Amino acid sequence: MGTELVATADEDTETSVFKNWNCTGLELTEEQRTARVVYFTMPDHDVNLVAEFVTPTKPDPAPENYKLIVSYAKVTLKDGSAVADLMAVPVGTELKATADEDTETSVFKSWSCTGLELTEEQRTARVVYFTMPDHDVNLVAEFVTPTKPDPAPETYKLIVSYAKITLKDGSAVADLKAVPMGTELKATADEDTETRVFKNWNCTGLELTEEQRTAHEIYFTMPDHDVELTAVFEVPATPDPDPTPDPKPNPDPTPAPGGDSDGGGAAIVAVAAVGGAAIGVGAYIAGTTAYLKSVLPEGMAIPANRQQLAVALWTAAGKPATQSTALFNDVAADAAELQAIRWVVDTGLMSAQDGSFKPGSRVGRMEVIRTWKTYQQRG
């Protein structure tokens, strides 16, 4: 009893390492319990002192490494720091891939990869995040040559006189001094007045058909050069006044067969005069009205547009049937007037252009008279 002693646990081995002391008959502090060497004094009773050992836990093995091949992109750790070695990236490493910047000749399209599954969203994202799998990965940022936008069309000057120019749909032209080539346009001559009536178009830089040249409204496409378009008007022509005029002119409504169907030669209209002076425009309007009333089917108004003229001609002819099955892109397939329009086009009294009849285009009285004379001359 009272002897001072030293206890030293055995050395650790590969299969066992010291853990603590287990003893009876001796009080050890917590520090002494886990110390390999302890000092104590023999008490007045037996002591049993055992050094306890445990099997050591093996540390986790270093993760396996795999190769990460990347092209046209930069790869970093998820936090943006550098990857130590792309040839040996540990499994489970969280990474970020960023495709190279676009240039004038190439823009990023998508990722092409082997050894890695990407979602559709990741495949087209410039930056993707992923975890290194347990195998090699090959990641390529694919680029394409950018498509250049079509160059703005060249613009040219459109000079117009005595008419209104709009786009084909009727909306305004932004600038007549800079009309883009290829623009689809509509030109409408000014309205007739008591002192002038539309005659024809005079233009430079634009080819018009004979029908377009005398139509009050025309459609055309802006060419690759300047255009000058003028609506030409004339004062209605009248014959020399009769010194003893009939105060109530009455054109012959039923001209003799084979005779001149206009009832008055080229003049077409009768002219009233007072004291030997021609009334002029007023006489023109009165005369053309009287003439047209005399030849049009009873109760039919004087045609004001191409559709009304077609219907008037067809009605005057007795509404004949036609073999034509033509359709027009500006006339409804179930329109009541379609049969009349087919007939006048089929007979050549009127024409259609590029599949369009332009039923709403205005017709002047002289145009109605000219067309009617053609119809009468054909018998």
UniProtKB/TrEMBL annotation:
Occurrences of domain Bacterial repeat (ranges): 4-54, 92-144, 179-234
Pfam families for this protein: Flg_new_2
Region (Disordered): 235-263
This protein's name: Bacterial repeat domain-containing protein
InterPro entries: Bacterial_rp_domain
Species per Swiss-Prot/TrEMBL record: Faecalibacterium prausnitzii
Bias kind Pro residues: ranges: 238-256
